[in-house]
Please model this.
Amino acid sequence: MKWDLSNKNNFIQKCFLHYNLVFAVRVFVCTTSKVGNYMEEKNIAESNIIKEFAIFKETIARLINDDLDSVKQGAYSFVYFDILHFKAINDIFTPIQGDKFLEYMQNSIRQIFPESSLLHRFGSDRFILFTNCNKAEIEKLIKKYLKRIADYKLSYEIVSNIGIYITNRADITVDGMIDRAIIAHSFIKGSYSKKYNFYETSQRMQLLGEQEITGRMAEALASKEFVVYFQPQYDHSNGSLVGAEALVRWIHPKRGLISPNIFIPVFEKNGFITKLDFYVFEETCKFIRQCEEKNVPIVPISINICRNDIYQEGFVESLEKIREKYEVPVRLLRIEITEYAVVDGIKKVNEIISELHSCGYIVEMDDFGSAYSSLNALKDINLDILKLDMKFLSDNGNNQNGAVILSSVVRMAKWLGFPVIAEGVEQKKQADYLLSIGCSYIQGYYYAKPMPADDFEIVLASTKQSCTKPSMFVINSMKAGNFWNPDSLETLIFSNYVGGAAILDYKKGNVEVLRVNRKYIQEIGQSLTEQNVLQTEMMSLLDEENKQKYIDMLERAISSEEEECETWRLYDKNKKPLCIRSTVRLIGKSVDSYLFYTMIRNVTTEKEVLQEMLHREKVFRATAEQLKLFYWEYDIKTKKMYPCVRCMQELHFPPVLENYPSSAIERGVFPMDIADFYEEVHKRLEKGEPYIEIDIPLTEKREMYRLRYTTEFDKYGNPVKAYGSAIKI
Ligand code: C2E
Ligand code: CA
Ligand code: CA
Model:
C-alpha cells in the first residue's frame, strides 16, 4: 500500500490525523479557503486514515503469515520515524516549509528503503515503515537516511528519531510489532545524540508500569496475590517424575496473571524480591507438608533465589527456620542460583553454598550458559546440578552448531560430575536428542507447563517417581577436568605436545567423540574438520568386525591400564578407508558410561606397504611351487630356520628348525660329504658375507641345486638374517 504525496487532498487528509491539530489546521487553511467545511472534512479525513491504517496492517499481517519462518529469524523490520520538535519547524518557519520538509522526508524514506517496503503516515511527522530488511541491512539504510535528513538545507538542525523493531516472533500481532517500534523510539525520543534505537524486551517491561508494581507489591503480598506454581521435571529415559521447580505468579485483581518476567526485575531493583523469595519458600514448604500429611508422594522442589538474597544477613538461617517450622526434610528442597549471581561474586556465592550444603541442601546453577561463564569457572564453585536452558542455545539446539554445542556442554558437565537438567524443552525431538547425548532430566512445555498446586498434586499422585542419579566421577591422576581448562597443563599437552588425541565417551557399545585436538584432525586428513569428526557417530565408520575389535579393546581398557588396537575406518565414502592405531586409557567413570583418553596414529600407509608385501609373498609362493623352489629364512643369532611350505611338505621340516644347519644335516638332507662345506657357508654368513651362491647336490638322490643366500644387516652393520633359496638345476 503506497500513498502519493503529490495528491494534495490525500496529503491534507493525512495531516488531520491525531494530535497535531495546529499543524493540521495550518496546512488545511493554506490549501483550502472553505473553512466552514472544516469539521466535515476532518471527519472524512480521520475515517480515511483509520481505513488506510487498517489496510496497511492487514497487508502486513498477510505478508507475515506467508513467511513465518523469516519473521522469526528477523528478516523484517518495523521502523518508526519522527522529527524532533517538528512543531518548531512549522512555528519558526512557515507551514509551507514544513510541508516541503515532510515531502523531502517521505521521499527520502521511499528512495532509501527497498521499493517493496510499506509506508504509513501516522500523522504530521510520524511514519511507520514495514520492510524486508534484517538488522544489519536496516542499520545501514538508517544511517543513510539520517545523513539525508541532516543535509536538508534549513537554518535549523533537523534531527529524526527512529525506533526499530526487528521481528523475532511470529506470535505477536502487527499492532504489537508496531508498538514495539514505538517503544524503542520512546527510549530515545528527544535525543540529539542517539538517533535510532532497536527494541529490546526489557524496554517493554520497563514501560509496563514499574511505578504501579512498586506501589502495590506489599499489599499484593499481604493479600496473597502471589501464587506459587510448580513445573514438574522428568527423567525422559523412563518418563518418571524426578523433581519440580517453584515459579511465582502474580494474580493481579485487575490485570490478571502477570508473568514474573515483568515484576521480578522490578523487585530485584527495589529489593522486595527477598521478601517474595521467602514467601515462595514458605508456600513451598507448606505444600510439601500438606502432601506428606495427605500421603501424596512428593519429589524435591527447587526454589529460585536471586543475587540480592545471597547478600542478606542470616539468609540461610532464615530459610532453615521456615523449613523447620513445617518439618520439611531438607532433601525435598533445592536451591537454584542463577549463573549471573554466581559470576558476580564467586566468593560470596561459595560461602552461601557451603552454608546450604552444611544444612543438606542441593544447590543448582540456573540458566547455565546465559552468562557465558566457562565450564572452567564451575570447578571453583561447589554446585550440585546444572540447569541448561534451551533458549540460550542458538536455534534451540535444532541446528547443527547448536546441537554440537549442546552435546559438548552436556558431556563436559557430566564429565565434571554435574547432572544436567535441560529446561525449556518444548518438542519431543529436543527431548530425544538430549537423551541421546546423555541428558535425561527434562523440564519444559513438552512434558508440562508450570501449574497450580492442586494440579501438581494430581501429577504427583499419578506419576511414577525416581530420583536424580549421581553423575561421572573422575577417577585418576589425569585430572580429567583440567582438559577443559584452557590454561591447564593438560590442555597444553593435549593441544600441542601429543600426537592425535581425543576424549571419548563410551556407553554400552556406543562411542562418542567429545573432543579432539588439532593433530587428530591432521592425522586423519581427508579434509575433515573438527566439527565433522565430532558430529560423526564414530561406530558408523567401522564395519562389524572392526567395531567388535574396538569395543573389545575399550572393554579390556576398563580394567587394565592401557590398551591398543588397529581398526579400519571409512571416514569418506568416496575415499579409501583408513587404518587407525588407537591407544586408550580410562580417565573417568560413571554409573553406566566411561571416559577414555585416546591417542591415534594413522597407519594406513604402513598397512598398505605390509599388505603389498603379503600379496607379493603370496605371488612368490605360488611361483615357487611351480618352479620347484625351496626357500627359507635363517636367523643368524638364534640359528633358527623358518622353512617354506614345500620344505615342510617334501623334506618334512617343522615350521621352525632349531640349531640350523646341524639339525638338517642330522635329518640327512645334506649328503655327508658336503655337510662340512655347508656348515662353512653358514660361518661365512655369520661373518657378514652379503651374498653367497653355490651349486651343491642335495638329498640322498644327490640332485644338483643352486643355493643362494642374501644377508640382512642391522643398523650397526651386523648380520641378522639370511634369506636362502635352492632351485633345481
Ligand atoms: P527460570 O528460573 O529460568 O524459570 C524457568 C522459566 O522458563 C519459567 O518462566 C518457565 O515457565 C519457563 N519455561 C519452562 N518450560 C518452558 C518451555 O518449554 N518453553 C518456554 N518458552 N518456557 C518454559 P517463568 O515462570 O515465567 O519465570 C521466569 C523467571 O522468573 C524464572 O526463570 C525466574 O528467573 C524468575 N522467577 C520465577 N519465580 C521466581 C521466584 O519465586 N523467585 C525468584 N527470585 N525468581 C523467580
Ligand atoms: Ca529457575
Ligand atoms: Ca532457568
Summary: The two ends are 104 Å apart (CA to CA). Confidence is low (pLDDT under 50) at residues 1-36, 394-398, 470-478.
